[in-house]
Amino acid sequence: MTAMTRAEEASVSQNSGAARAPGDSGEAVLTIDGLKTHYKTDEGVVRAVDGVDLTAYRGQTTCVVGESGCGKSVTARSILQLIDLPGKIADGRIMWQPDPAVEAVDLTTLDEDGEQLRRVRGGEIGMVFQEPMASLSPMYTVGSHLVETILLHTDLNEADAKDRAIHELKRVGIPQPERRFDAYPFQLSGGMCQRVMIALALSCEPALLIADEPTTALDVTTQARILDLLLGLQEETGMSMLFITHDLGVVAEIAADVSVMYLGKVVEKAGVDELFENPQHPYTQALLESIPSLDHDGQKPGRLRAISGTVPHPADRPAGCSFHPRCPHAMAGTCDAEEPPVIDLGDGRIAPCHLHDPESSGPGRPLPLLPVPPVQEARATGADDAVDVAAVPAPDLAGKQPMLRVRDLSVEFPIRKGFWNRTVGHVGAVSSVDLDIYPGETLGLVGESGCGKTTLGRSIVRALEPTRGSITYRPPGSDGEVDLAALGGRALRPYRSDVRMIFQDPFTSLNPRKTLLQLIGEPLRRAGARNGPVAGTKVNDSTTQDQVAEMLARVGLRPEYMWRYPHAFSGGQRQRVNIARALITRPSVVVADEAVSALDVSVRAQILNLLKDLQEEFRLTYLFISHDLSVVEHVCDRVAVMYLGRVVERADTDSLFEQPRHPYSEALLSAVPQPDPRQRGTGKRIRLPDDLPDPTDPPPGCRFHTRCRFAVEGLCDRAGASPVLRDEASHSVACLRAEEIQLQGRQ
Amino acid sequence: MFRNNASTIGPDSEPDDQAAEKYAVASRWRLVWRRFRNHKLAMAGLIVTILVYVVAVFGEFLAPYSTSHLNDEYTYAPPQRLQIVDTSGDDWDWGLHVNGYTMERDPETLAQEFTTDPDNKVPVGFFVKGEEYELFGLIPWDRHLIGPVDSDTPMYLLGADQMGRDQFSRIIHGTRISMSVGLVGVAMGFVLGILLGGISGYFGGRTDTIVQRAVELFMSLPTLPLWLGLAAAIPRDWGSVERYFAITVVLSLVAWTGLARDVRGRFMSLREEDFVTSARLDGTGEPRIIFGHVLPSFTSHLIATLTLSIPTMILAETALSFLGLGLQPPTVSWGVLLQEAQNIRVISTAPWLLLPGVAVVVAILALNFLGDGLRDAADPYKH
Amino acid sequence: MVQFLIRRILYMIPTLFLISMLVFVIIQLPPGDYLTTVIVEMEESGEGVDQAQIEYLRGRYGLDQPIWVQYWQWISGIIFELDFGHSFEWGREVSSLVADRLPLTIAISLITVVFTWAMALPIGIYSAVKQYSVGDYFFTTIGFLGVATPNFLLALLLMWAAASMGMSVGGMSPAMFVVAVVVLGTAGTAGLIRVMRANLLDELKKPYVVAARARGIPQRKRLIKYPVRVAMNPFVSSIGWLLPGLISGEVIVSSVMNLHTTGPLLLEALRGQDMYLAGSIILIAAVLTVVGTLLSDLALAWLDPRIRIN
Which residues are in the ABC transmembrane type-1 domain (chain B) (predicted)? Predict the structure, then answer.
């Protein structure tokens, strides 16, 4: 590169540096200009990033948000040339100017292994990744990772570097940093590892921190503490932050500016308040509408405004505006033919859309809101369904008999060790849980990972053998009761079709070797499918085919898809197949285990709507297991909160969210980021210490006392005096101090 | 990340795209084949493997002579080159032929020395009449694919051994034994492996622990001394057929361990798969879970593993026979043929005695390429 | 760590015990015994056979005892007096026969292991880092050939090459030692290159490698210190399968090359039903393998904190 072009670049970067952030007076530290990162594959060139413009302002947080596959991570990695073959930065410039007094450099022109780029990496720009545990080498201690980086970028000697490392560990809130210095990553929790990663990234005082989905793999309580930490550190050091995420709640919590990406392009750029208040691109609009949250008038909307379809694979990007096949406002002949022009909407806002283009749609036309898709029309089919298909009103539980009554249910797993794999102990994944599920309701089950909610769900459908306790089931329209926990093998079969399950992972839960017809038709063949044909029926039977076709239509798939294999479908479509498979036996109870957790925001909304419609149509009772409190708030009538194998609180959803009575529930609620920047900083922040106690050796007394801010020594930690769930009809809590403490609910 | 197939179909797209439609309804084996086809080395391996087995089946027809055909005048006769045109005369004389030998005895060493004589033309033809044989042991016939037109004149395309037997014919005949030892041995090892692995994986717990310890014990033993010990235990007066089966049993006894481990591992991991749990929740009985869901899920992997263990068997048979503890003449296998090349002096006089070794290398390479390709293609759903 | 060591050594005892029984059973499998072989040989050479003398010998060697008694005598001798029994054919103590040849066997095996590692490590790293390069294809091809060639064939070829260059190929010479090591090491090296290449390719894709890159760690250090360090672990544990293969190969290669090791001795003993000799050699080989595996497990625990700590 000649001095001439260097100078030119510098002048360009000066210009872009002068461009102000909307509503703020920052200057650019990093300016990405027309970045294109392409992957050459056997099937052609995949344009993962295709012309991205992005600016990170000094001392501020810039968020890049988008669904999976939109190219946000590839953009972040391109900055430090962390792209592996067959990927390559094909075009564009990345101007880096940590010091306003020094000319900006174009990072794309630096030699991958050159001294200059190495200094930038880790020295001037720090980076934090999604999987904290895997981002640290298991072979070295936390301390040696830190010392290595510090020695590399500073002039300190070994001893000073160690002091600095311990100081860094302390700064990111790691307790006992001198001891943790010698710990290996696998001895720490995920949250602790992420703190170590942050310490590593910040150890040489970089001007910019790139955080690539740093909290996605963490629990919500840990996420809240990591976000607090990052914001605190930013205030302390004045660094800039480029934050990549898919979670609009996180964006609302921390961003100053936001860039929304879709299929390798930035589709909207705005300040955070403007973006949430007045989104200008149909995609941003749709994305915001598909997050479950309270309506503007404080009401829970019945249905979400879902975006149709799924994000296409970057290899077959649609022509014209890449969002047009999913856009409700798409104009034939324009949107599918021409790329929308990049027009400045004032204040530095950008939202490339033909609707803003005076040439194609007239000036200043406001974007219409997305229409809520109509409820699918319930088609009467069998004689069974013809009776009351009317929508179920919010269930009134008083005087009702529960459909499932779980009593004192415990599930323990043996710990095996040694040459002969002897059982040396047990982990109580679920211990002495009581739970009632009433007909027609949706009961939510929430808690951090490892709290036993999945184990509980799986033992209710009897995919797991309960160690103790009973699961009493009362089939609808009958007075008889049966204890499912006591049944086994053949005796259980008739109830298998009554209590069904929807799995989390749409990719592993469908046998890839079977067609949809076989997959959905198989449960029908099993003996005891009460409303289906008798056992021994062939899958290819035409009645089976009819039933499968009808079920496919109900979950929103074409009946002719029944001849296809699962590999031809996307995640969201497969989840529809899973739902069809669960519902084909006409069950009365469905356990949905994190059924929407693996899906993108826009697809998640579609599936949630579908579940809601089907509940009304088939009069289903749901046990909805999820770690995502906003989804639970949206779909559930009642919620049970689990902690370390126990249910600690059980209440109506509104009551729980507004007035939680267990300190753990309070902390969970407080940790959920609200997709509304106006609420930032309101309310008290309650943060839990990161570490979950060892489940093989739960704390005595109240299991939560080790992390509880109200715990009283001598009361809560007394062995043999653990709190029990006191039944007070609509709101029960297992806390020894429930009467005395004042807790805060959702604002 | 970006390699997954582009044909995922959105709910709103028309199934007009025929390729995508075909992909959508493609069964597992079709997808495996699609993947396998793109693997050039594996395709080459497949073709060579098929050829080798064709040779094994049609050996009597393909070979000019039978295994016992000998002519002791021609001890260690060197290979003759197959020629199409004779330019020794004034004219170009077309016609498939080899040149005959002139023999001289070295007056000092008394060793027979051969030189090919360009004037002595032995015409060679296709589908010539020769020794009678029974194709597949059933159909009597006397035609050979290639051979001297006059069946009394000798032809040694790959030279002769100490007794003046045609090396080319014997390599072809050896193919059958060598290649089938692999197949039969693997089949037996497979039955043992799948039985124990399946039992271990299915029952789990104590049974599993015991089987696993046994497998580890077997795996820590040096295999060849075991093979040798077992092979030495075969009574010497057994006939060639009994000996053949005894050897394959010995080979499979030691080879089952790897298979058992593989089967068990897959069994264990598949049992925990969501789709198996899901089938269980349908009320599907255990036998159907195993035969309808678990087993079909790893047949393709199993075929790949089996293919990859055939070469080990072939190598072991070759080694055992070479040491004289395996198959014995008059049975002809590549290992038995290599017995003739025991010492350096013989090899220096007649290096073509090492040619069965080339056959071994080619067959094993082909099987390895094939197996690797199958293994890579076995899971067409993984991206 | 000490506890780990003690536990591993305790596990070895039942394993070795089972191995010794298995070996003895295999040795006993052939119908008849050493004396039957002698009788057959004597009859073939036309000598008369004195039944009384045979019976006397049978009693003297304990061959008329039930099999478990024979086993107990053999194994108790080994454990308590390091007495491996008597070789019928050689008329000598098995221990002295084996002691005579064992050093060379162990030397060849150890040097082959070192050779294998020394070759496979750099080539494996190269092949993974320069995946799909000409060099990678070259080594992959060599690797495939190495696996596909029976080692006795390779030995014959190399000896033939040496002979045609005018070298002496009979018995032991430095050149022949090198040939033996190369021949024995080829298959293992080829296997290890594939293992190393595959492991390193996996490790290179791990997030910690990208993270190290993002911290500005220089390329060479980043490669050696991070992914190679992890990919090394299977390398160390490879001795578990390397040693049995090596001992097997040693038997056959030594016979072809006529080396003064335990291999040819074992072959002869097996042919002649010289059961104590054959049994002892197989047992020693198995013990060496088990000990080697133990050592590699210890080395692995020392190298890998995940194993050391959990």
Answer: 175-371
